[in-house]
Write a structure and sequence with these properties.
The chain has 431 residues and is of the alpha+beta class. Helix content is 51%, strand content 17%.
Length: 431
């Protein structure tokens, strides 16, 4: 019954909404120890809460509960034992979630319940279950994080597995690009007169022309529609892969530039126009990269904030006066990851820097030295040593394939891991 203890974000919200509803109902707490689990216990109240939760879920889904209640109850107790073991493991490896994270989850739960955050919290508080709900959210998030870390380290993905997956039909479909189109249709029927066909064609030509000038097919069609009596339609395709689009579009869209507007596409039902509004995924992944060298000074017990700022300004001036940046970085930088390399951060992908640093770096020319600036790590001076557009298509495809293979192996490896930690734990059931 409990084949997986892994929870997605949405699953957590669903479970917690169910739990909240059940906890809002009358609760019966019988604080009796059901099982001793290593250094902790499972209480009767936990079993009762879980039974109530599952009953509510089953009722909502119009599904029957198992007829053998004792077996059903035993399975619930065993699931709670395994959860308890995981929570103790999480404590040992210091997995914790702060209040801000829990608040974000509660905010999602509130939205899912068509409430504001404050109203939702007040509802839980009035029912006397607010703190209990927070802890249940924290528990599920903690178990999810523990499983992710412990199980993923047990999974090995070889390059041969990646290659085989990418060559499979599933792999090719997965890495294929998704397209978002705007679509306009000017219907033409067999009953239209020659004059009507000419007017509709002229209308379609104008929409194409206006769309290419304004870069917005939707606006062009709307403007023409408001000034014309002819019907103008279209289909909301959403995100689709090329092979999921109508045949008259599927071959065309793969060769269109982002934002591009097609010429007229004639079909049996009329004249079509499409615009490629957005594209995601695909095998082509080009990334802007910047080669950066920097020096970082962090405030500490012997260097306060003001002194760190003064010293980084002095180092910047020494660079401007002609001293070697790399040498100064090796002698002074507090960044342990780059100090040996003379402050060299290598090629950094766009979006791969702290926002405060990226804002400064984006304004620099190649070989230009920055003003001093502050990040969470400390005070910096940086130099841009190169810029390039890098093709990461191969790495991207390998990464996508590896993630898919890892997800495929995760559930089986999770069950193996749960069996292992269950066997290693001390568990004593109390009659």
């Amino acid at each position: 019954m409990y084949k997986s203890m892994r929870f997605t974000h949405s699953a957590i919200i669903l479970v917690m909404l169910t739990l909240s509803e059940s906890l809002l109902a009358q609760r019966v707490l019988l604080d009796k120890v059901i099982a001793i689990v290593d250094e902790d216990v499972v209480l009767q109240s936990e079993v009762n809460t879980r039974i109530t939760e599952i009953q509510a879920q089953a009722q909502r889904a119009n599904q029957p509960l198992p007829e053998d209640f004792e077996t059903f109850k035993s399975e619930i107790i065993e699931a709670l034992v395994i959860e308890n073991i995981q929570m103790q493991l999480a404590e040992r490896v210091s997995i914790r979630f702060d209040d801000d994270t829990i608040n974000r989850i509660l905010g999602n739960m509130a939205n899912n319940n068509n409430m504001s955050f404050d109203v939702y919290v007040n509802t839980l508080e009035n029912a006397g279950v607010y703190l209990e709900t927070r802890e249940q959210v924290r528990k599920q998030m903690t178990i999810q994080e523990l499983q992710r870390g412990m199980v993923n380290r047990r999974i090995t993905i070889t390059q041969q597995e990646i290659n085989n997956f990418l060559n499979s039909q599933m792999g090719r479909e997965m890495i294929a690009a998704d397209y978002f189109l705007e679509h306009v249709l000017i219907p033409i029927s067999t009953g239209d007169s020659s004059e009507a066909r000419e007017k509709k064609t002229a209308l379609a030509v104008k929409i194409v022309s206006d769309a290419k000038q304004s870069a917005s097919l939707k606006n062009a069609a709307s403007d023409v529609k408001n000034s014309n009596s002819f019907e103008i339609g279209g289909t909301e395709f959403g995100w689709r892969k090329a092979e999921q689009l109508p045949g008259i579009f599927s071959n065309l869209v793969t060769s269109m530039e982002l934002g591009g507007v097609s010429d007229l596409i004639e079909a049996g039902n009329g004249l079509h126009i499409i615009q490629l509004v957005d594209k995601r995924g695909g095998t082509e992944q080009f990334v802007n990269q910047t080669r950066i060298r920097h020096i970082m000074l962090s405030p500490n017990e012997i260097r306060d904030e003001a002194q760190a700022e003064r010293e980084i300004q002095q180092l910047r001036q020494r660079v401007l006066d002609g001293e070697d940046f790399a040498t100064l970085a090796r002698q002074n930088s507090d960044d342990a990851s780059s100090v040996v390399a003379g402050g060299d951060l290598d090629w950094v992908n766009e979006g791969g820097m702290p926002p405060a640093m990226e804002e400064v770096i984006n304004e620099l020319d190649v070989d230009e030295v920055s003003e001093t600036f502050r990040t969470d790590g400390g005070w910096h001076v940086a130099k841009v040593e190169g810029r390039r557009l890098q093709d990461l298509s191969s790495q991207y495809m390998d990464s996508q394939a590896e993630n898919a293979l890892r997800n495929r192996k995760f559930d089986l490896e999770l069950q193996n891991w749960l069996l292992e930690i269950r066997e290693e734990a001390f568990v004593e059931f109390i009659d």
